[in-house]
Structure formats: structure tokens, C-alpha cells
Amino acid sequence: MGLGVLPDHRTLKPPGTVLLDDLLGARKLDADSPESSGLKKQGHVVLQPQPCDSPNDPLNWSMKVKLSVYVTLAITMVSIGGVLSMLSTAGRILGERFHVKYSTVIQNVSAPGTGSTMGALFIAAPLAAVFGKRVLIFFGVLGIAVDMCFGIFANSLTYYRTVSIFNGIWMAPVELLIAPTTTDLIFVHQRGRFMALSAVIRDVGSDAR
Questions:
Q1: pTM greater than 0.85 (yes/no)
Q2: Nearest 10 degrees: CA dihedral of 107, 113, 117, 120?
Q3: Selecting from 1.10.569.10, 1.20.1250.20, 2.102.10.10, 3.20.20.70, what CATH number does the domain 58-208 have?
Q4: Which region among 83-97, 147-161, 164-178 has the lowest average model confidence (pLDDT)?
């Protein structure tokens, strides 16, 4: 077990875990045992989470549909990260235009956007639980697109700072919800590669900013 985690000798498996396979070590578990009877499976793998019988359950969608949703989210994240990074690369140009130091430009453009994203992350999670993830992702992408249009008319560092703050707010749900959306689509035994790729995509978007 990991450092500080004690093994539980009183139960077959640690509390909070699920049975993913009916082959546990060298001992074959009975498929009709109370632990696995009545559960939906793919071969020997017990599906977790358990999908319902509704075709509208994302877990029941075909892998092709799941991949299309995942790829769309991935492209959205990378595209938004690339768009928001464009202003950061122009920091020295903005400094020369407004006759200020490069550090002053960063303080007025990058720092406020990062701060607003961190604050909005705390609000995005409960809003997603109430209104749904698709609603927040849609308005997040829409808000960033509108901010980019308003950014065309920016003529001062204060203007840029305001746009950056709103961009950070709209970025929060898009950045936060890609991992929860993955968990809604993919079973636990298939989730490793998708979650790893989600982390890479999220880091690429953050680094681009």
C-alpha cells in the first residue's frame, strides 16, 4: 500500500473500490456471486459506472460517438489556449506602444486573466451541476469569441486588462469540465489513456496562455 495507507484485512477489497474483473489473482470469482451478479459486463470486466438502460445515457453511446465528443472538446481546449496566448506573445510590442515596461504589461494582461480563471473555477463546478456541462462549455466558448471581437477595439492597458479578466472567467468552465465530461463518457477500465490525454491537453492550454 502507499505511504500512510494501511491495508484492510477485514474485507475482500478496500472500501470505496469496485470489482473490475472476475479474475482476482489466481482465484477465479464466481460470476453468480453476490459481488458480481446482476451487474453489466464487457466480457469478464464489470462495467463501472454501471450504465442504465436508457439510450440517452452517454455510457451507452458507441465508441465512435464518444471519441467524436472527446476530440471536439480537445480541439476546443487547444484552440482556446492558442487564441488566448496570442496577446501574451505581443507583450513587448504593447509595452513599446503604451510606453511601459514589459513587466507592467504582464501585470495588466496575463496576471488578471489567471486570477479570474482561478476564482471562476470555484463557481463553474456548482453551476455545471445545476445547469449541465454542455451549457457552461457553450457559453464559455461563446464568451471568449465575443471578447476576442471586443479586443479588436482595445486602445489601452485598462481595456486589455478588462478583456483578459473576462477571458479568464469564460475559460474556467472549458478548462474544468473536460475531465468530468470524460468520466461521464468512458468506463473506468477504459479511462486511463483518456484522462492522461486530458491532462496533457489542459497543460498545453495553460502553458499556451
A1: no
A2: 100
A3: 1.20.1250.20
A4: 83-97
